[in-house]
Amino acid sequence: xxxxxxxxxxxxxxxxxxxxxxxxxxxxxxxxxxxxxxRELLDLDLEHPAELADRLEQLSHxxxxxxxxxxxxxxxxxxxxxxxxxxxxxxxxLLSSRQIxxxxxxxxxxxxxxxxxxxxxxxxxxxxxELPEQERREIxxxxxxxxxxxxxxxxxxxxxxxxxxxxxxxxxxxxxQGERGGDNLPEKFFDVYVIDAHFHPIGYVPLSTLMRSxxxxxxxxxxxxxxxxxxxxxxxxxxxxxxxxxDLISAPVVDADGRLTGMITVDDMVEVIxxxxxxxxxxxxxxxxxxxxxxxxxxxxxxxxWLFVNLLTAMLASSVISxxxxxxxxxxxxxxxxxxxxxxxxxxGTQALTVAI
Length: 357
What we know:
Layout: H1 20-31, H2 35-41, H3 49-57, H4 61-70, H5 77-82, H6 85-91, H7 97-106, H8 109-117, H9 121-130, H10 133-143, H11 150-153, E1 160-162, H12 167-180, E2 191-195, E3 201-206, H13 207-212, H14 219-222, H15 236-246, E4 250-254, E5 260-265, H16 266-284, H17 296-322, H18 325-330, H19 332-356
Parallel strand pairs: 1-2
Antiparallel strand pairs: 2-3, 4-5
Pfam families: CBS, MgtE_N
Domain CBS: 223-279
Protein name: Magnesium transporter
């Protein structure tokens, strides 16, 4: 599979941070059912999808539901790809299976899989029926891998060329593929993978190197053979470690026979690192994951078990102290020292656990 992306004009740069005023304006427009104003505030041509996603994540469920009823088209594929998982899970039931399937067709395979994972079992069947055969097969193959593995993260669109091609042939081929269009090309890529006759990756050529070289230069003379190869069953945390260790921008994914089947890019790894960091921090605090759209009951369930354990241990400590109430009454200094000892013990334990994680 050899691919290249078409160039898309980027939206104008937007300010950093979340504009609370725009969130309030969007809420007012939704309340007033002002479709024109809603589309002005959610215009992908004016702002990056990530900015719009931040705005939608601040809305309540009822606002998002009304928005989906008034202007379902504002939930574009690019916007859905930027939303947090718990918000996507909240939004998808509000959209038709046809709209979801069209979004998955436009998204790259890794983003499409992430979107599909947030659907209910019933909705998955409906969406699969709407998808073309190729996209359906790719989704099913990706779901055959365990969660949080490279097989779930990889995108099946990549750029590859044989070692005997020249720079000119590679560039011309990529231009032809771009002119033809289609959805088999990555939107963004950083390396051209060099393959042998059996479709095994044997090296890579960064785009920067490719563009600086003469057209007649062979890829085999340019390629870097220090290739870090990923297998589909590798844990995503291990993949992130490889990206950090070798300063990777992208890495090829191979099947059991060593054939190139996909690639993983650094933007996916940034998300993985953030997710793993959040997971470790929540574990440190003794809290299971709770999202923005969770109900009060779900939040209580996420936090209550460890709070109850802490309460039991505190009661146990109090019962132990009560055994020495006579000694404490005779030496008041012991009572003064108890909260200090408890506080220092807790802080020391937290620090040790933080360093270990």
